[in-house]
C-alpha cells in the first residue's frame, strides 16, 4: 500500500476551470473522503488520480513515484464505480476473477485470490450465482471484490453506495469501514453525503467550487470548521447561523444577536471592528431550554423518541433548528427561549471565514 500526493492539481474543460491548485498529502493506509455539493469537482479529482482524466497542471505521486503520465492500469489503483459495472452473463466468481483473467494470471493464484476476496466480502456461498440473482448490496460487494483481487496500492470509490436504499447504505458503511481495517489499504472515497464522510473517514477533504475548503479529521471539521461553508456542510441537522452586530472588541467579542440577545464570545477580534456584521454559528445539539438566550418561534416539532427536533426561526426569517429532549413540552406555533454557551459558538466574518477561538487560559504559557 502507499501514500498518495496531489501537487498543485488544476483542471480546465475548455475555458471553464473546475479544479484550482489542489495539493493534498494522503498517508499510507488512510481512508480519505472527498465530500462536497454536486459539481464541486470531486469526481473529476478522483478520475484524475485514476488516470481517466488528465490534469491541466500538477502532479500525482503514488508511493512517492510520479504517475502523472502513467496509463491507468500501470498506476496501481483500482476504482469502484456507482454503477456496479458487472457482467450479467458471468457468475460472481468470474466477475471477481475478470481483471485477473485479463492479466492471464496462473489458475491456482487466481482461484486463491477470488476465494480470499469472497471470504472477506461474505460472498463465498454466492460465487456460482449471476449478478441478477443478487441484492443491490451484494452486487456492490462483487464490484469491490473485483477491486480487491488486483491488490491495488490505492482503492478509489466513486459514490459506491448511492444506488442503495438508506438502510442498506448504513450497513454498507459499516462493512466498508471494516474492509478498510481488514485490508489495511489506502482508500479515497467520493460522496456528496456528509454522514458517509463523517462515519467512514480518517480525514475528510471538503471541496467547494473546485477548491479545498478544509482537510481534517471528522471531529476537527465538526468542532473547528474553518469556514461557514464547512460549518454548514458537516453535522446533522445543519448548524444555525444568526446575523449579529459587533458591539465591542475589548476582552473578547461582544455581539448583539438578531432578536436582541447579547453575548461575549471568546474569539480573536483583530479582524473585526465595532459595528461590523458577523454570523454566530450554533449547532442544534448545543442549545438547551433556558430563561435567557435567543427567542425562537417553533414552526414544527418532530418527535423522534429520544430527541425532538424543533424547526423554527428568530424574528420570522432566520432559520433556527434545535435538538431538544424527546419529551420536551414545546408547542408548535409557540415560542421558546434557548440558552447558548459562548464556548459552543462559532463566529464567521463577512467573507465566511471563522474568527479563531482564543486559547483557553490554562493552555497559555
Ligand atoms: N467532460 C467534461 N466536460 C466539461 N465539463 C465537465 C466534464 N466533466 C465535468 N465537468 C464539469 O466539471 C465540474 C465538476 O464536475 P464533477 O463531476 O467533478 O463534480 P462532482 O462534485 O463529482 O459532482 P456530482 O456529485 O454531481 O457528481 C462541473 O461543473 C461539471 O459540469
From TrEMBL:
UniProt cross-references to SMART domains, sorted A to Z: AAA
Keyword annotations: ATP-binding, Nucleotide-binding, Transport
CDD domains, per database record: ABC_MalK_N
Gene Ontology molecular functions: ABC-type maltose transporter activity; ATP binding; ATP hydrolysis activity
Matching InterPro entries: AAA+_ATPase, ABC_transporter-like_ATP-bd, ABC_transporter-like_CS, ABC_transpr_MalK-like, ABC_transpr_MalK/UgpC-like, Mo/tungstate-bd_C_term_dom, NA-bd_OB-fold, P-loop_NTPase
ABC transporter domain span: 4-234
Transmembrane segments: none
An example Gene Ontology CC term for this record: maltose transport complex
Family: Belongs to the ABC transporter superfamily.
Protein name as annotated: ABC transporter ATP-binding protein
Amino acid at each position: 500500500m502507499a501514500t498518495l500526493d496531489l501537487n498543485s492539481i488544476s483542471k480546465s474543460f475548455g475555458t471553464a476551470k473546475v479544479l484550482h491548485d489542489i495539493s493534498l498529502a494522503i498517508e499510507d493506509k488512510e481512508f480519505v473522503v472527498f465530500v462536497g455539493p454536486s459539481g464541486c469537482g470531486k469526481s473529476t479529482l478522483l478520475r484524475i488520480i485514476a488516470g481517466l482524466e488528465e490534469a491541466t497542471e500538477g502532479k500525482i505521486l503514488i508511493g512517492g513515484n510520479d504517475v502523472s503520465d502513467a496509463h491507468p492500469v500501470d498506476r496501481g489503483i483500482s476504482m469502484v464505480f456507482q454503477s456496479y459495472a458487472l457482467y450479467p452473463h458471468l457468475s460472481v466468481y468470474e466477475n471477481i476473477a475478470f481483471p485477473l483473467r485479463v492479466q492471464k494470471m496462473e489458475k491456482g493464484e487466481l482461484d486463491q485470490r477470488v476465494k480470499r476476496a469472497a471470504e472477506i466480502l461474505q460472498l463465498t456461498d454466492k460465487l456460482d450465482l449471476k449478478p441478477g440473482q443478487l441484492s443491490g448490496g451484494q452486487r456492490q460487494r462483487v464490484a469491490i471484490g473485483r477491486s480487491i483481487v488486483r491488490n491495488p496500492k490505492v482503492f478509489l470509490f466513486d459514490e459506491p453506495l448511492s444506488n442503495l436504499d438508506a438502510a442498506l447504505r448504513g450497513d454498507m458503511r459499516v462493512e466498508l469501514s471494516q474492509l478498510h481495517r481488514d485490508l489495511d489499504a489506502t482508500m479515497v472515497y467520493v460522496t456528496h453525503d456528509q454522514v458517509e464522510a463523517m462515519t467512514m473517514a480518517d480525514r475528510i477533504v471538503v471541496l467547494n467550487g473546485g477548491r479545498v475548503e478544509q482537510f481534517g479529521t471528522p471531529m476537527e471539521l465538526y468542532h473547528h470548521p474553518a469556514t461557514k461553508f464547512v460549518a454548514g456542510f458537516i453535522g446533522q441537522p445543519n448548524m444555525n447561523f444568526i446575523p449579529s452586530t459587533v458591539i465591542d472588541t475589548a476582552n473578547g467579542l461582544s455581539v448583539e444577536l438578531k432578536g436582541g440577545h447579547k453575548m461575549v464570545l471568546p474569539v480573536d477580534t483583530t479582524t473585526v471592528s465595532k459595528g461590523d456584521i458577523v454570523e454566530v454559528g450554533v449547532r442544534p445539539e448545543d442549545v438547551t431550554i433556558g430563561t435567557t438566550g435567543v427567542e425562537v418561534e417553533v414552526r414544527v416539532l418532530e418527535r423522534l423518541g429520544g430527541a425532538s427536533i424543533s424547526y423554527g426561526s428568530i424574528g420570522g426569517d432566520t432559520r433556527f433548528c434545535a435538538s431538544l429532549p424527546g419529551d420536551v413540552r414545546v408547542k408548535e406555533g409557540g415560542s421558546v427561549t434557548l440558552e447558548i454557551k459562548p464556548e459552543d459558538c462559532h463566529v464567521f466574518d463577512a467573507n465566511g471565514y471563522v474568527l479563531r477561538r482564543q486559547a483557553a487560559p490554562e493552555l497559555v504559557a
